[in-house]
Amino acid sequence: MHLGFALPGVLTPERSPRQVESGAALETFKVNTLGPLMLMKWFADRFLPRKGTELLLPSPSSSSASSSSPPAQLSLPPHATWTTLSARLSSIADNTLGGWYSYRASKAGVNQLTKTLDLHLAKRQRHAMALAYHPGTVRTDFTREFWTHVPEEQLFGVDYAVERLVDVVVAQARLESHRGKCWDWKGEEVPP
């Protein structure tokens, strides 16, 4: 595996503590935080390359294209990269509005899991790192009720969102100092 993505997300927009319902909050944590953790459990040691294992990259001069080869214009980082979907709302430093209690907390948990997995990978596996990613507001059913509150230039189509995801992850994964952090669709770090 060279690039791996865990992209779960559910949201119940609680605007005050009285709106938090334990069942909905538990489901938010199960999908947003526990789901990626269970994927990390199985992928980290079984599919991400171990120390001393050579990571074979496709040759850019290779004339025969296979369905498993990346597009010619995609220049992969020199190691495997695990990316988990987070959100700008996960940032404690950037929280100026409040609300959305279980979603914010579940995505902050994703950032902690990402950092912890990255430390594990750094200690045990030379050719792998972990990142978290905030895609911005993507025009899907997940965000439908919020479209009217988002400026049109910040409401992204799915194709654009996927393009940004790959571009940002590949760019950020090239630098050791970017390991274990959360990055947004602009390539800017989301503060913890």
UniProtKB/TrEMBL annotation:
Task: Write down the Gene3D superfamilies for this protein, in alphabetical order.
Answer: NAD(P)-binding Rossmann-like Domain
Q: Which domain of life is it from?
A: Eukaryota
Family matches, as Pfam families? adh_short (PF00106)
Q: Which family does it belong to?
A: Belongs to the short-chain dehydrogenases/reductases (SDR) family.
- The name of this protein is Uncharacterized protein
What organism is recorded for this protein? Answer: Apiospora hydei
